[in-house]
Amino acid sequence: MIRRMPELAELWDPFKCEYDPEHVDLVLGVTSHGKAIMLRFFLGVWRHDNEYGFDLFDAVAILDEELLEIITDWMADPFWP
């Protein structure tokens, strides 16, 4: 799922299966609003919580069809890493 956004996928270490919270916080502070929404979504799925504040209403209002499709595909067939 995150492979569809390689600029965010680089925040995860595929060998350790983890992310660097400090790097994530830095990216959230400088990235576009749309990418921040997607990052919050990926983090919510990864962590099984909403600590980073993903907002579905914000996502629907801001994201284009391609990015919304990532979310709706997951909603149709959710999985938890």
Describe the protein's architecture and organization:
With 81 residues, the protein is mainly alpha-helical. The protein has one domain (2-76). Helices cover 59% and strands 5% of the residues. The chain has five helices and two strands; from the N terminus they run αββαααα. It has helices spanning 6-9, 21-30, 33-47, 56-62, 65-76; strands at 12-13, 18-19. Strands 1-2 form a two-stranded antiparallel ribbon. The termini are close together.
Largest sheet: 2 strands, antiparallel
Please write the string of helix (H) and strand (E) elements: HEEHHHH
* Overall 3D form: globular
Q: How many domains make up the 3D coordinates?
A: 1
Summary keywords:
mainly alpha; 5 helices; 2 strands; 59% helix; globular
Task: Produce the secondary structure layout.
Layout: H1 6-9, E1 12-13, E2 18-19, H2 21-30, H3 33-47, H4 56-62, H5 65-76
Antiparallel strand pairs: 1-2
Short description:
The protein has 81 residues and is mainly alpha-helical. The chain has five helices and two strands, in the order H-E-E-H-H-H-H.
